[in-house]
Amino acid sequence: MAQTNLPTRLQVGEKTVNIQQRLGNGAFGVVYGVEEEGTSQVYAMKDILCLNVSAIHNANREASTLNKISHENVIAIVSIGHFYDGVGLHKLLLTEYCSGGSLNDRLARPSSDQQNLKWMIQIADAVAHLHSCNVVHRDLKADNVLLTASEDVKLGDFGLACEYIPLKRADVQLYHGSWLTTYTKYYMQSRIGPIHWVAPEFLRGHYTEKADDFSLGTLLFAILERDYIVINGKAIYGAFVSVPGRGKYGVGFAMENFDRNIRIQFSSHAQGSNALQRNVHELLKYNPYDRPTAQEICNHLRAIQENIGLGQSSTDSNEAGSCF
Fold this sequence. Notes:
With 324 residues, the chain is α+β, with helices and mostly antiparallel strands. The protein is built from 8 helices and 16 strands. The longest helix has 20 residues, at 113-132. Residues 167-173, 180-193 and 312-324 have low confidence and may be disordered.
């Protein structure tokens, strides 16, 4: 990523903001905490440096994707702007600010079963909504799940997200001159993404929105198990397996490169009922067509939450929602 120095005061759409601090890096940009002049409202601003036409296309795609999504657990875009300097074009995306930091950082500290279940439902609901809008995130990991001051989920960083077409139309001419319209399954092919959280088929470059469902499973596993690997001195939470003689890998990577029959296991110190853990296992299946959808998982998690709220015995709540 090219080094650049933004001015501390910028115009982003109709809002004038002042940069307060650097918050971190996104898939294709740097994120800053900014304050609006006149209101003192705090936002997050993503600066995407565009050095070529492809980068401009990616930045416009991210803005377009965020604009079409409206959900309480997805980061909301506030304004869009741009800025030129001697390095290139900067696309500026102003979004709501999440003061609770990332879920990845939060998982280093204990949380209650009730809090865990809330996060799981909110993440699943957000992913289900994306899929209902024909959007695949492709970068689902704990670092991209942001938290508000009240620790509610806001799914962020749509730098790798793309729109997809579940069925692709094809018109075939028949021998007598007429045409027959057929529909075939559409597969995405880009392999750009974080290898430790992706589905096995993602690594083959032949996947659908079901790859997001697998990554959702790694997120839910991380919440209950709190397993991690260390990258550049930072603990990164996910779903990992130890391969004898090889090391520790994301479960999807291990399935695709070593043994498709590898299965993730919860340890004795993992949180959550048997029903919660079984729902996670269903998402982490090798065959994408064997996985439930994000919406189905969300529905089952809500059922578990409702049964707990009704005060069922622990035995009953352990079985609630396990309908697979």
